[in-house]
Amino acid sequence: MVPSFREFLEWLLKQPPGHDDDHWAQYYTHCAVCDTSYNFILKLDEYTFGEVNYVLSKLKLDKSKIYLPKLQRTRAGITDFDVTCKYFHNLTTDMILRLYERYKVDFEMYNYKIDKYLPCAKRKN
């Protein structure tokens, strides 16, 4: 039997965070984002050519010679907010808040705002 997204989160939120599988562990616990000195950081969830063109100009690269294919959604890693909201629609506000608390560092590190996700909840409790 494959659990629903809600059933998985009900289980996950009962588990201590320190014992998470890498697939659902807090991202900051297994990445080296803070160990690298970056010149530019782009958030591509809301991809705009302006940001990419700015970086290319700062790097003195000729954008006409660079192939930038349109970003495509991946089969398993869709980041579109509407899809996320559809999954969150089956959660309560309390579950979303507990999920936020568990992944708070990740939310802050990548500038995601919990207020954007709370209206997606189907029920308040």
Features:
125 residues; mainly alpha; 6 helices
**Total number of helical segments?**
6
Mean pLDDT: 82
Biggest sheet architecture: none
Q: How do the SSEs run, as a string of H and E?
A: HHHHHH
Rounded to an integer in angstroms, the radius of gyration calculated over CA atoms is: 18 Å
Estimate nothing, just give the exact number of structural domains: 1
Helix percent reads 25-40%
Structure class:
mainly alpha
Tell the overall outline.
Answer: elongated
Please report the distance between the alpha carbons of the first and last residues: 26 Å
Instruction: Find the count of extended strands (DSSP E, 2+ residues).
Output: 0
Pick out the low-confidence regions: none
Strand content: under 5%
